[in-house]
Specification:
Elements (H helix, E strand, L loop, with lengths): L3 H5 L6 H12 L20 H13 L5 H8 L3 H11 L2 E4 L2 E4 L4 H15 L14
Antiparallel strand pairs: 1-2
Helix pairs in contact: 4-5
Length: about 130
């Protein structure tokens, strides 16, 4: 007989979650959907705020998360999530930059590497072939 972990691998429910589910259903719960939770709904990560943060970062990539949050009037953690998750950026040397290179940037790097390291052709600088 196979265990849940053998069948589902990393996607298998943990024992404690299974025990909690059994307890909840034995106490009268009838469905598996999440119930309403207390607390304030998330309202800061809107399309408008994402657009504002994008514009601010385009104008000056050296701004801190704190200063961006102050300008947009939202929480710092929300700004950080907008930058990293919505705008797909990361911090590099106190500057927010896209996580992935564009095709043009990739081609420029390959060309630069090939010309500077003399890959596959006689070296332009010395005239000798690569080792």
């Amino acid at each position: 007989m196979l265990t849940l972990a053998q069948v589902y691998g990393d996607n298998a429910m943990k024992k404690t979650a299974v025990y909690k589910g059994v307890k909840d259903f034995s106490e009268g719960r009838e469905n598996v959907t999440d119930e309403e939770r207390s607390g304030r709904p998330a309202t800061s990560r809107t399309k408008e705020n994402i657009a504002k943060v994008r514009q601010i970062v385009r104008e000056n990539r050296r701004l801190t998360v704190r200063s961006i949050a102050k300008q947009v009037n939202i929480d710092r953690e929300t700004v950080r999530k907008i930058l990293t998750e919505d705008l797909d950026m990361k911090k590099v040397c106190a500057k927010m930059v896209p996580k992935e290179l564009t095709e043009e940037q990739k081609q420029r790097r390959v060309f630069s590497y090939q010309t500077n390291n003399c890959v596959g052709t006689p070296c332009l600088f010395t005239g000798s072939s690569p080792q």
